[in-house]
Amino acid sequence: MENKIKGSEAFWKALIAEGVDTVFGYPGGQIMHVYDSLCSYTDRVRHILVRHEQGAIHAAQGFARVSGRPGVVLVTSGPGATNVVTGLVDAMTDSTPLVVVTGQVPNAALGTDAFQEADVTGMTGPITKWNYQIRRPEDVAWAIARAFYIAGSGRPGPVVLDFTKDAQVGLTDFHYEKCTGIRSYHPDPFPSDKALDEAAALIDASKKPFVVFGQGVTISHAEDRLAEFLRKGDLPSGSTMLGLGALPTDFPNYEGMIGMHGHVAANVKTSECDLLIAIGMRFSDRVTGSVGKYARNAKVIHIDIDKAEIGKIIPVTVGLCGDAGRVLEALTARISPGSHREWLESFVPVREIEKKKVIEPELHPKGKELKMGEVVDAVTAYCGGRAIVVTDVGQNQLMASRYSRLASRRSFISSGGLGTMGFGLPAAIGAAIADPSRPVCLFVGDGGIQMTIQEFGTIMQEHTGVKVILLNNNWLGNVRQWQQLFYDRRYSATRMINPNYEDIAKAYGIKYIRVKDREALPKALETLFSDNGPCLMDVLVEEEANVMPMVPPGSGLDRMMLTENSWYENE
Amino acid sequence: MDNEIRTYTVLIYTENQIGLLSQIANVFTRRSLSIWTLTAGPTAIEGVHTITITSDATRRKIDEAVKQIEKRVDVISATYYVSEEIVYRELALCKVPSPALLESGAIEKLLSDHHARILEMNPEFTVLQKTGTLRETTAFYESVKPFGVLQFVRSGRVAVSRDAEPEIKCCK
Ligand SMILES: Cc1ncc(C[n+]2csc(CCOP(=O)(O)OP(=O)(O)O)c2C)c(N)n1
Question: Strand pairing partners for B62?
Fold first, then answer.
């Protein structure tokens, strides 16, 4: 009997056995035993007390994306659990490994509409990779081992463990064994030799190949193997928004981001190529534009670890189901060294058009007002590409994805598939906690920052050195842009009166800088990075500016708006 | 052909995990696919359950749904078939008043015409059992109708594939 421990204690022992050193959470009635047991483990586990459970889960996402390890979230039952739902969907679409633990009412109260009871496993089934209700203390170790294995293997994703009070207070023996396999789950598929040979033959035969890669490369730690593959095949490439950071911005023949607000050459060449090689990405509609017009001249090779993604949106010529790194290694060994000079040269004039019509006016504007793009460029250049760039959602995100200079891996953190406003500030906190050695620069709008602004409290309490660059335009800018372009400038509910951010920063003891004009920017950057502490840099940018280029809804990638009234169109 | 709507039978083998059924059903509803019949129960292998679902869909849609089902961690395998690729049955039970049935003198013929059986008979009512395809159980119902049907229920489909391989290799 004396060897038995409480389930709540087994919980912490199990987390430690999984190598967990950081947990993001918020206490409450049905998780109090777990918090009580935490007192004995604070020397090994750092608990970050957030200000809202949504903050906890987004912070854990930022942590996971930077560290490559599952983020851990601990919340109470009922409202604590429902507050993490947005983050679960976000992590599910963006393949982020999370282990989220929710408190739950005692077993006998399940289904009785007890105080703060919510059907957490029922509710989170479709939005998690796996979920499980722990009702007995002896299942704690098993469930946690399984949760970490599932969250981090194959295509990563969020897992929910609903931890009833009986399982927390009951006594159990404790033996920990890591999970190494589940008979119904095969997270590491690998394509056949035949399929690999076919793919290699297609690559060797292609005159106009183009590579599109996504976050799968980062998840698989396959950055080097991607670079080798591209070099050997002499292949041009573009990245999805979440793929950014896998290659340094100045990598040869790398065209940057593809998709709705992607770079013109990357988009146009997707339409012209005779072979599209897609790696660790899922053909989101923000990437493809009109699917019927997508890569219509191309055969398609699709590499993805998730079998359900292959052929889901775009029919494939060869599907290679497997880990991006392992597949790329096998493929690189099979292809002959390529040379595509003529094809690569054809990119230059397209690049020039974008440079002249879009990039120059954004980075070196003639007008007085500050542009978002020039701010992003200046901040990330100041960091010498070392920064981890975190974004919120909206114009700030699109500009950050277009103009950030990235030289290091796991350096671009954004809410892609769900587009969750309010993601940025807490995700930046998690990113900074995961890697204190790199500057963390958050680009956020005045709308999004107010969705999770309470997390300034977490920054204050934890002394997290997040550099918050508020791209302040007094609008819900991205929606305003659509209203301007597609709704005859009827600005319905997008004008926003802002609070005094200086007072807010002051209340939280966070350094504040206001930047009103271009001349003030260099000095402001020095102040921003003069110490390792948090700072809010409030940049008053041009109010009614648009993110260009833009593939309008329903259009193919080769028809892009360059300005409100000029277009790039393939002849 | 990929866009032609047909009736597909989906055979799913799962670990016995609570909540899996609703997650599987959810894969259909999320894609606006209706579930026509659903049968679930334990298999002969301990801990392994089977779920059989029929749904009308295009090949593209059913393929997409089945891949999503197979992706669930606790799903051992999920496969879809058109009716020619499987041997399948549904079960119908029909309760009729015994006097009407006996007075007619048609009971012998009814049973032999439809290969039906009597499960239970008492002075008040008789329970008849009929297995077959949907069309066969429907024809049976039509024949029994004149006697005054008290209750008629039908199960979902159960099916086995028409190939000689073991269905789930990992659990042999
Ligand atoms: C939670 C949530 N609600 C609404 C939206 C829709 N939405 C997308 S961008 C945007 C405007 C964002 O405005 P702001 O944060 O000021 O950033 P900006 O576009 O001006 O950079 C809105 C409302 C969303 N993506 N997420």
Answer: none
Across residues A516-529, what is the average pLDDT?
98
Which atom number of ligand 1 is nearest to the Cα of residue A476?
13
Is residue A172's pLDDT more than 80? yes
Tell me, what's the pLDDT at A262?
A: 98
| CA–CA separation, B50 and B42 (whole Å) | 6
pLDDT above 90 (res A299): yes
ipTM of the complex: 0.92
Task: Report the distance separating Cα A218 and Cα B127, nearest Å.
Answer: 63
User: What local confidence, expressed as pLDDT, does residue A3 receive?
Assistant: 87
**A193-347 fold:** Rossmann fold (3.40.50)
The class that CATH gives domain B6-86 is alpha beta
Please tell me which of the candidates A130, A306, A307 has its beta carbon nearest to residue B73.
Answer: A130
Q: How far is B62 from chain A (nearest CA, A)?
A: 11
The CATH number of the structural domain formed by A370-540 is 3.40.50.970
Q: Domain boundaries in chain A?
A: 5-172, 193-347, 370-540
Of A121, A150, A308, the CB nearest to B19: A121
- Rounded to whole angstroms, how far apart are CA atoms A86 and A505? 26
Query: Do A401 and A241 touch, CB atoms closer than 8 A?
Result: yes
**For a substitution probing ligand 1, which of A57, A241, A421 has the most ligand atoms within 8 Å of its CB?**
A421
**Is A514 in contact with A502 (CB distance < 8 Å)?**
yes
> A393-402, pLDDT tens digit by residue?
999 999 999 9
Name the residue among A31, A18, A207 with its Cα closest to residue A106.
Answer: A31
Indicate whether A543 pLDDT > 80: yes
Q: How far apart are CA A122 and CA A124, in angstroms?
A: 6
What is the A394 CA–ligand 1 centroid distance (Å)? Answer: 5
Which tens digits make up the pLDDT trace of A375-416? 999 999 999 999 999 999 999 999 999 999 999 999 999 999
Average pLDDT over residues A477-498: 97
Q: What is the mean pLDDT of chain A?
A: 97
Provide the 3-class DSSP secondary structure of residue A125.
helix
Q: Which CATH class is domain A5-172?
A: alpha beta
The span from the CA of A530 to the CA of A539, in Å, is 18
**Which residue from A126, A130, A308 is facing B67, i.e. has the nearest CB?**
A308
Which residues of chain B lie closer than 8 angstroms to A131, CB-CB? 19
**A182 with B18: Cβ contact below 8 A:** no
**pLDDT tens figures, A115-160:** 999 999 999 999 999 999 999 999 999 999 999 999 999 999 999 9
In the block, residue with structure tokens 């395998």 = B77
Domain ranges of chain B: 6-86, 88-154
Q: Which protein residues are within 6 Å of ligand 1, measured from CB? A: A 392-396, 419-422, 445-448, 471, 473, 475-479
Nearest Cα of chain A lies from the Cα of B75 at a distance, in angstroms, of 6
Cis amide leading into B97 (omega within 30): no
- pTM summary value: 0.97
CATH of B88-154, one of 3.40.50.300, 3.60.15.10, 3.30.70.890, 3.30.70.1150: 3.30.70.1150
Task: Give residue B169 CA to ligand 1 midpoint distance, Å.
Answer: 49
**Pairwise CB contact (< 8 Å): B70 & A307:** yes
